[in-house]
Design goal:
CATH topology of the largest domain: GMP Synthetase, Chain A, domain 3
Number of domains: 2
Structural class: alpha+beta
Shape: elongated
Strand content: 35-45%
Order of helices and strands: EEEEEEEEHEEHEE
Low-confidence stretches: none
Mean pLDDT: 89
Number of strands: 12
Strand order of the largest sheet: 1-2-3-6
Length: about 170
Amino acid sequence: MELLDPDTLEPVREGEVGEMVYTTLRKEGAPLIRYRSRDLTRAISGTCACRSILPRHDKLLGRSDDMFIIRGVNIYPGHIDEILSRQAGIGSEYQIHLRRRDDGKDYMTIKVERESAGDPNRDAKLSTRIEAAIKQGVLVSGKVEIVEYHSLPRTDRKSQRVFDSRD
């Protein structure tokens, strides 16, 4: 296992987040030579308490192909999802909309469903609280728009979360 910078494909320093790349030399049927998983994680140094000699890594932090950059900050939808999952008063569906205005700046709007029995009169207070949590979590401000429960599409497969309309 290697951890590489997804853009330069150079190894990252210990403790830095990188894309996990596998090589399986013992697999006879279909060996993987530097297989890019697109999973982002960081290496954990030291040996495991179980005495395994295999390299260890932290939990998966996101995917390199999901990342988007806004105002110079790399953002992973998984991080937004994690922040939203800790918020009360909203459902599980959301969408991230990115656009560039005439002033040349990028803007992010996050559409979030209100919980099924939620009160629309509390939307302004709820969106202000979520906007503050997102700014603290990803270091970029964005507008949060609360929408009706079940107004965002659901699919059997992975939902599309990011809609990037920037040039």
